[in-house]
Design brief:
Blueprint lengths: L1 H21 L6 H8 L3 H7 L3 H24 L5 H23 L6 H9 L4 H27 L9 H22 L7 H9 L4 H7 L1
Length: 206
């Protein structure tokens, strides 16, 4: 059981790395297995298709990312500070990826959405669920910021959360294009403007 589980993990790790670096469509099962160091037959023991593998990669990536997002966004810090923590963690993920691979790979979800949203409905649907879940998490923080007077009362929390997720994805795309994680630094400033944060609150949080 340990060996089969190890082989499955190797396939998932290889697929995640290759998808992040090169995209989904250009990859073949043989290359994934070669990179993972497992026989091709092992692939079909665990996954019925390349799309099934991609969905598993997406789910495992989201499980890890969601754990981080929940930890950051549900801390006992002020709501705005929690959002800033999320932006800084997102930038750090891209910096770590650049140090490891020599290039910024961007967001796995955003990359796959651009590549496959018009080609693979099951993947598109799963990515939409993930983005909706991200919006839900951020919306809760925006609502709390409004309740504390840290964001303008006129701000629509749901719409603001959707815009924040869109900005994260857009900035990750720019970071990938320019191979520059610093593109994500603008997230904080843009968020302050989007939420119409009062000057005194901006000064207080730094």
């Amino acid at each position: 059981m340990g060996r089969t589980s190890d082989a499955r993990n190797k396939i998932l790790e290889a697929a995640a790395t290759l998808i992040e670096q090169r995209g989904y469509s250009a990859l073949g099962v043989a290359e994934i297995c070669s990179t993972a160091g497992v026989p091709k037959g092992s692939f079909y023991y665990f996954f019925e298709s390349k799309q099934a593998l991609a969905l598993t990669v997406i789910d495992e990536h989201w499980t890890a990312q969601r754990r981080q997002w929940v930890e950051l966004l549900s801390s006992d810090r002020d709501p705005l500070r929690r959002l800033r923590d999320l932006f800084e963690a997102t930038e750090e993920v891209q910096r770590a990826g650049q140090q490891k691979a020599g290039l910024v790979t961007g967001c796995l979800f955003g990359n796959l959405a651009l590549e496959l949203s018009t080609q693979a409905e099951e993947i598109r649907s799963r990515l939409q669920e993930i983005f909706d879940a991200q919006i839900d998490l951020i919306e809760q923080v925006v609502v709390e910021a409004k309740e504390r007077g840290q964001a303008a009362a006129a701000v629509d929390a749901r719409d603001a959360a959707r815009s924040i997720v869109a900005q994260i994805e857009g900035r990750a795309l720019l970071a990938k294009l320019l191979n520059d994680p610093a593109q994500l630094e603008a997230l904080w400033r843009n968020c302050l403007d989007l939420l119409q944060v009062p000057a005194q609150e901006r000064a207080a949080i730094g």
